[in-house]
Fold:
Amino acid sequence: MRKDREELWRRYKLQGDAEAREQLILSYAPLVKHVVDRLNISPMPYMDHDDLTTHAIIGLIDAIEKCDLERCHQFEGYARARIRGAVIDGIREMDWVPRAARRAANQIESTRASLSATLGRAATAEEVAQALDVDVERVYEATAGVERGAMLSLDDPLAGGEGDTLTLLDAVCHPESPDPGAGIDALAQKQALAEAIETLNPDERLVVTLYYHEDLTLKEIGRVLDRTEARVCQIHKAALRKIRARLAANEVFLAA
Structure:
């Protein structure tokens, strides 16, 4: 096995053999699982075990590419350090919470766990603050800071009835999707406006219809009704006053 690896190293480093490179990655792949398991990292909301493994593999590949042929016999120790560093760097990149805030939160959670084990119950924020000799507000702020930095997956299932497969993505509103509430309000306003127009006399309704629906000018409406433009203007203004008075008391328009 060792001679086989040495041959692969020579082929890759001296000849740039891509197949030898792939064989080296597969040969040293067990190191990835070994390092990730040894790190004993607790599950995180923004990174699962598969993500950790991906970063570890990237570290292994980087180690293979950077290792000199003369040092290939010492590769496993070098690779472990590179893999571990890649995993830690990956965690830091994905973690939105500043390191200082994360350290403070970890200290608080460690103290809380220790107190809970001693007390036989969940420790309160006040007890944690007293144990750390800090204000209780500091405990709340540190915990809240980490919670604000937690990431959610849009594929996470939401609570629902039996057989439901609703995810967080299904509940997120698309920026271009219509607002159902706004649609209902618009329909109610349109209905109220139609009712207000129905209260006008025949001349006023005709002027409003020709002006706003048919896009005729006041002068053109005058010719249709055989009235002067000034008279049509008066009818138009009177119609608008009646409509405004009618809508002013309508709840739909008051809410808008």
Q: What stands out?
A: The radius of gyration is 36 Å. The chain has a mean pLDDT of 77.
